[in-house]
Amino acid sequence: MTRQDQVSPVEPVGTTPQVKKGQGIKGALYSDEERRRRDDTVWTLVQGALAPLQFLVFLISLVLVVRTLATGEGAWAADISIVLKTGLLYTIMITGSIWEKVVFGKWLFAPAFFWEDVFSMLVLALHTAYLVMLFGGLGSVEARLIVALAGYAAYVINAGQFLWKLRVARLEAPAAPEAVPA
After folding, report:
1. Per residue in 90-130, pLDDT tens?
2. Range of 135's domain?
3. d(Cα 84, Cα 50) in Å, to the nearest integer?
């Protein structure tokens, strides 16, 4: 059975998700086996550590970029912060690809994260364009920072996609067994 065979149309409100033995909830983000691999791999922990770190660097960098665009000062600090943010982006993309391979058996574009991966490619393209401009001496400081801001806007959307999937995964998590009174 393919992953697409497991996906069902939206069920009416108030219905109970269908569960097939060994497959988990029909149309779920993870099969039982994928959930086990996700929970057992160190790459889940790596992603969980890198994502908030990247977000913190993003926030600091965003302030520096906006300050430079508003005042014309601090371009060097803004550039350093964007390079650092881009390095973290590449790191999280590489480790995320490893995570996807371990959990879903595909390096990228696993059905459960297809659109997140597609949008991640846009984020990478914009951040890479910024690096090309910076290290190639192309365009003005303002033009380069505008490309960085476009990359940041795409990053915020992409982060939202992943946060949504995290929420879905938590809602689909199997309930903890109830304690039996002694």
Report:
1. 999 999 999 999 999 999 999 988 999 999 999 999 999 99
2. 17-172
3. 13
Number of compact structural domains in the chain? 1
Residue 45 lies inside a defined structural domain of this protein: yes
* 179 falls within a domain: no
Q: What sign does the dihedral 38-44-45-49 (CA atoms) show? A: negative
pTM of the model: 0.76
- Amino acid identity for residue 21 in this structure: K
The DSSP annotation for 27-91 comes to T-SS-HHHHHHHHH-HHHHHHHHHHHHHHHHHHHHHHHHHHHHHHS--HHHHHHHHHHHHHHHHH
Tens-digit pLDDT profile for residues 11-54: 333 333 443 434 444 568 888 899 899 999 999 999 999 999 99
Domain membership flag for residue 147 = yes
